[in-house]
Backbone:
């Protein structure tokens, strides 16, 4: 798994703590206003990925020795600060019967990267999840990134017959619920490049 980018907005967090507590609850799906999104075609991953554009989030492909990843980071004035990453295995296929095992292994490995204890990693039980056309498994957990307490969501899934994809989002501990809408909008529109 790729090393995560650092959440560098500790000072901004203190300034907007009160504002975050005053946010209204999410509107029901029927009342949601459509938002403009950035659409990135990422050939390195074989994916089309949608990214927040109100305000615009930063996005880039990060090359690594093993696998490239697509990293999306919230802008400096966004609260809570957040990072989303996408990784794919374009040369692999996994049938539905093996997806739970693959997802569990990947999620526990991600938890290890966030310094989650072995006992807590083993206790992670990924749950079925669907985002757009992707079905798979997800889990949430708390950990540490660059000295900060964070909360993480990891999803591993695929469209049957196609290669697996891992999507991850993290933010400050206790704030993952505030990323529900950005995660739904972004992950619900991921598609394979045809």
Residues:
């Amino acid at each position: 798994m790729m090393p995560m980018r650092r959440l560098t907005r500790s000072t901004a967090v203190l300034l907007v703590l009160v504002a975050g507590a005053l946010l209204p609850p999410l509107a029901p799906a029927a009342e949601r206003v459509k938002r403009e999104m950035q659409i990135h075609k990422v050939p390195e991953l074989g994916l089309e990925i949608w990214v927040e554009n109100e305000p615009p989030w930063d996005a880039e492909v990060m090359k690594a020795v093993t696998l490239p990843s697509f990293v999306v980071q919230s802008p400096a004035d966004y609260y809570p600060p957040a990072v989303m990453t996408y990784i794919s295995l374009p040369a692999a296929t996994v049938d539905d019967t093996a997806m739970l095992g693959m997802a569990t292994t990947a999620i526990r490995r991600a938890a290890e990267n966030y310094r989650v204890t072995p006992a807590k990693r083993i206790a992670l039980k990924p749950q079925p999840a669907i985002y757009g056309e992707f079905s798979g498994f997800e889990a949430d957990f708390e950990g540490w990134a660059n000295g900060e307490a964070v909360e993480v969501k990891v999803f591993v899934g695929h469209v049957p017959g196609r290669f697996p994809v891992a999507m991850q989002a993290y933010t400050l501990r206790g704030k993952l619920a505030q990323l529900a809408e950005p995660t739904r909008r972004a992950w619900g529109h991921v598609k394979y490049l045809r």
Summary: Residues 1-27 have pLDDT under 50 and may be disordered.
